[in-house]
Amino acid sequence: MVGHRTQDYWGRPLQDLRISVMDRCSFRCPYCMPESLYPEEFRFLSGQERLSFDEIVQIARVAVQLGVRKLRLTGGEPLLRADLPELITRLASLEGVEDLALTTNGVLLPRQALALRQAGLHRVTVSLDALDPTTFEQMSGGRGRVEQVLEGIEAARRVNFPKGIKINTVVQRGVNEKDVRPLALYGRQRGIVVRFIEYMDVGTRNGWQISDVVRAEDILALLSEDGELERLPSYEQHDVAQRYRYRHDGSEIGVIASVTSPFCRGCSRARLSSDGKLHTCLFSAEGFDLRSLLRGQDMFSLEEVMRSIWQERRDRYSDRRFHQHDKLSSGSRVEMNYIGG
Predict the structure, then answer these.
(1) Are the C-beta atoms of residues 194 and 186 closer than 8 Å to each other?
(2) Maximum distance among all alpha carbons in the chain?
(3) C-alpha angle with apex 130: 125 to 133, nearest 5 degrees?
(4) Which pTM does this prediction carry?
(5) Which domain holds residue 328?
(6) Which of 61, 66, 207, 286 stands 20 to 30 A from 94 (CA)?
(7) Distance CA 201, CA 320 (A)
(8) Which residues, 6 or more positions from 169, have their beta carbon under 8 angstroms from its beta carbon?
(9) Best CA proximity match to 336, nearest among 201, 222, 134, 224
(10) pLDDT in tens, 148-176
(11) What CATH number has the domain bearing residue 308?
(12) 10 lies in a domain?
């Protein structure tokens, strides 16, 4: 049964649920899982500590009843989760799900793209921060090769996902500005929208500083060197990406100004961590433990609990950071590998 949109304290609807299915990743990107803090011997969650597929589907079904229309599978690296197409098949069958997507580093797509497509996945987003091999190696923590990711993108193109492919690029000052224009050209030549994201202070382990942020206006200035850009309207009210089109060829790119133009006022996303905690903000410290609720003997209604969590939500971290001139204390925050981006 498809439900009505549940709104939080500020009137924001619950519309999107991001589901982390795996806290592990094959990369060690410094802005997410730096090698120094995630060495080979690092203890990740055990299989029992992660939500089972049954538990994920149970939570997703309730989320849809509360108004969610978009589901996205994230990690860590979600393609490291065994039998993932089985979960996708089950999620795709939920009445009311209009968009089922997955974010990946792309390395395992050559082996899995067809199975994902056949299972019912609508769309794939590949994280790719550089085309230059040396810069890519730096930004992936020395793991993997850019050629592997490009092979994964081509594999995804071949199976023709119904809602296509996107590329996400985190831009860091002094690291990969020189890759912005080549990445945009790469996407334009293949009909893939590349979205450039301002470097964010997610988690507590990446040493984020405002001076490391390449602002959206500077990214657009770089992109404008290859042609005049015109702003496009958003697809939906709560879209986070600013859309642009090159006038000379009609190709599209996107910019996510998450630091300099925070979009808290329109945020409709909840995030489910791989250990079963529901987070109502990317920058939250403690999530709400749904795993214990599902595995316990308490007779609480999952729907009532999730509705209450969202209705009491007041998160506006990025707005507060912006208005306090980027001086908010980092404090304690959930790490990105547990809840995706």
Answers:
(1) yes
(2) 62
(3) 125
(4) 0.91
(5) 16-339
(6) 286
(7) 13
(8) 127, 128, 129, 176, 179, 180, 183, 194, 195, 196, 197
(9) 201
(10) 999 999 999 999 999 999 999 999 999 99
(11) 3.20.20.70
(12) no
